[in-house]
Write a structure and sequence with these properties.
Number of domains: 3
Largest sheet: 5 strands, mixed
Helix content: 40-55%
Distance between the termini: 54 Å
CATH architecture of the largest domain: 3-Layer(aba) Sandwich
GO molecular function: 4 iron, 4 sulfur cluster binding; FMN binding; metal ion binding; NADH dehydrogenase (ubiquinone) activity
Bound molecules: flavin mononucleotide, iron/sulfur cluster
Pfam families: Complex1_51K, NADH_4Fe-4S
Radius of gyration: 23 Å
Keywords: 4Fe-4S, Iron, Iron-sulfur, Metal-binding
CATH class of the largest domain: Alpha Beta
Shape: globular
CATH superfamily of the largest domain: NADH-ubiquinone oxidoreductase 51kDa subunit
Strand order of the largest sheet: 6-5-9-7-8
Organism: Dictyobacter vulcani
InterPro entries: NADH-UbQ_OxRdtase_51kDa_CS, Nuo51_FMN-bd, Nuo51_FMN-bd_sf, Nuop51_4Fe4S-bd, Nuop51_4Fe4S-bd_sf
Order of helices and strands: HHHHEHHEHEHHEHHHEEHEEHEHHHHHH
Number of helices: 20
CATH topology of the largest domain: Rossmann fold
């Protein structure tokens, strides 16, 4: 089994388990990165270290964090903000809540370093209100940090000041999207906004420039400042420094586990590290990226876990979930289930996503019920292009990944249902009595 424990940066080793209290975190070197930054480094130097470390956003898109911060820093706004996105949009991902519960002070130290680097004096941490233990743990840690003059005015007797407000909301998948969070913080209805302009140019309150980062991105910053960019980037791939937290499921109904692996590890090594074998779990496919991710056949297990190789294979980092599917899974039915879930989670603001994902679900329901015709495959292909291309936010851009990967890697599952009117794995039950009639999407 690969020894990824040696590269743990944000989860704690069992021997180093409890750093939840301020005193325990400080006894392991906690807040020394903040002290070093405030006393020895300029904000530009902190920013440059984060660029050199090849820290890429863990929230899904993989943008270079330091480049995003540089735009925020260079803005002439007198007031700037930092938002820590600790929402876990995909409710089956445990990454954000694990960090908040297990290592809250490292999250706070990361937020403060980001605020120092971009020139912000107010930060918000946005989480799911239903993750009560995580919410309580980070609130208590902020309180401890305020009392120790690590958060608030004139931090550590320097002229750097920064407050942190912890906010919680429960609004399904879309609560994790950045413009939705900014709207909610401002007390508005949580709906995605058109970009550009990006939050780094047009953010909170009266359009003030805002650096919004995933909690998992920010929790890596103390290590970079304390140990240096080269030490950080010594773990990871050529393109992406550091590690990734993954929520791994042995099957759709199993208990999850959270693991930390270096970027660039293969899917096979990750499963080994999690103690899973595709043979022992009678697996037929691996889903990468959670609800908006795609499915890969076992022949793709040597794919490296990194933004670009995953995208080439048709899957995404997404919510950081990896899940094995049983060998008798009908992939038409699987894609239908994912699509039905995404239909419910779409906010409905734009037509391609609101109607397109629903239509895909309907056509797949027809095929699963052995009511499909060969023309359905062409219509599905049209939707698979039309929805991502016409959608306003990242939700619609990724929503057709389950369909696209199921069609790409298991075309025979579709043709067997349509041409032979039977399920290729003998597992599907009809869900419709009538065909879902859909004309071509594009003229
Ligand atoms: C539908 C949707 C849900 C998202 N959910 C999350 C989430 O739960 N956590 C997160 O960090 N980013 C999430 N993102 C990405 C954020 O919008 C944003 O890009 C991210 O917080 C930026 O941080 P990063 O640069 O550190 O990745 C989501 C995006 C979309 C479109
Ligand atoms: S793509 Fe979907 S989730 Fe995003 S704004 Fe449009 S309807 Fe809403």
């Amino acid at each position: 089994m690969p020894k990824f424990e040696q590269s743990y940066r944000v989860l704690q080793h069992s021997a180093n388990a409890d750093v939840r209290s301020l005193s325990a975190y400080r006894s392991k070197g906690g807040y020394s990165a903040l002290e070093k930054a405030l006393r020895e480094l300029s904000p530009e130097q902190v920013n440059q270290q984060v660029i050199d470390a090849k820290l890429r956003g863990r929230g899904g898109a993989g943008r270079l964090t330091g480049e995003k911060w540089r735009i925020t820093r260079q803005s002439e706004d007198d007031q700037k903000y930092v938002i820590c996105n600790a929402y876990d949009a995909d409710s089956r991902s445990l990454a954000a809540r694990t960090l908040l519960e297990q290592n809250p002070h490292q999250v706070i130290e990361g937020i403060l370093l980001a605020a120092y680097a971009v020139g912000a004096s107010e930060a918000y941490l946005f989480t799911r209100s239903t993750s009560a233990a995580a919410h309580a743990a980070v609130q208590q840690a902020v309180q401890e940090a305020v009392e120790a003059n690590l958060v608030g005015r004139d931090i550590l007797s320097t002229d750097f000041s920064c407050t942190i407000s912890v906010l919680g909301a429960e609004m399904g998948f879309m609560g994790g999207e950045e413009t939705v969070q900014m709207a909610l913080i401002k007390g508005r209805r949580g709906m995605p906004e058109q970009r550009p302009p990006f939050p780094a140019q047009y953010g909170l309150w009266i359009c003030k420039t805002t650096a919004i980062n995933s909690v998992e991105t920010l929790v890596n910053v103390p290590y970079i400042v304390r140990e240096g960019a080269a030490a950080f980037a010594s773990v990871g791939s050529a393109m992406t420094g550091g590690t990734k937290l993954l929520t791994v499921y042995a099957s759709p109904t199993s208990e999850p586990q959270v693991v930390e692996v270096p970027f660039g590890a293969t899917l096979r090594d990750i499963l080994d590290h999690a103690g899973l074998s595709t043979a022992a779990n009678a697996a037929g496919a691996v889903v990468v990226g959670g609800a908006e991710g795609g499915a890969l056949p076992l022949s793709a297990l040597d794919t490296a876990y990194d933004f670009d190789p995953l995208e080439e294979a048709g899957v995404i980092v997404g919510s950081g979930i990896i899940e094995l599917l049983p060998v008798d899974t009908c992939m038409v039915s699987w894609a239908m289930g994912q699509s039905a879930y995404l239909t419910k989670e779409s906010c409905g603001k734009c037509v391609p996503c609101r109607l397109g994902v629903k239509r895909i679900t309907g056509i797949l329901e027809g095929i699963v019920s052995d009511l499909g015709v060969s023309g359905d495959l062409d219509v599905l292909d049209e939707f698979a292009d039309y929805v991502p291309n016409g959608s306003l936010c990242g939700f619609g851009v990724q929503a057709t990944n389950p369909l696209k990967t199921a069609k790409r890697y298991w075309p025979e599952h579709f043709t067997t249902h349509i041409q032979e009117q039977r399920c290729p794995t003998g597992t599907c039950v009809p869900v419709r009595a009538h065909r879902f009639v859909t004309k071509h999407v594009l003229p």
